[in-house]
Amino acid sequence: MKNVILSADGELGVYSVPDVVAEKLSEYCIAFCNDWLRNSPDAEKYRHGSYVCYNEADFIEYLNTWVFPDEQSEFIKNLGYCTKIPAPYSQYPSFNF
């Protein structure tokens, strides 16, 4: 498991995710947003007419439920609102939804 930083235009959160997710974070996040949320019947609760509503916690739930149920991702730490990611976290991959 590796650490990443996720946010949804708000506070930054450090999460522990499977290594492959950290190594290809943008790919997994974009697949979640552009494919799963829009097409999966399991994502119906996120759809509201012509738009979808979700945040980084929903991405973690998606990973834990549908993609890596045997490697549970988890929240580690809230970094708060930051314009610049503080050290030592600045080396972590990051994604803003």
Tag the structure with descriptive keywords.
alpha+beta, 4-stranded mixed beta sheet, two-stranded antiparallel sheet, 3 helices, globular
Layout of helices and strands, plus pairs?
Blueprint: E1 2-7, E2 12-17, H1 19-23, H2 25-39, E3 47-48, E4 51-52, H3 56-67, E5 74-80, E6 94-96
Parallel strand pairs: 1-6
Antiparallel strand pairs: 1-2, 2-5, 3-4
Please give a structural write-up:
Strands 5-2-1-6 form a four-stranded mixed beta sheet. A two-stranded antiparallel ribbon has the order 3-4. It has three helices and six strands, in the order ββααββαββ. A hairpin with a 2-residue loop joins strand 3 (47-48) and strand 4. The mean pLDDT is 96. By secondary structure, it is α+β, with helices and mostly antiparallel strands. It has helices at 19-23, 25-39, 56-67, and strands at residues 2-7, 12-17, 47-48, 51-52, 74-80, 94-96. The two termini are 21 Å apart. 33% of the residues lie in helices and 27% in strands.
Write a brief caption for the model:
The chain is of the alpha+beta class and 97 residues long.
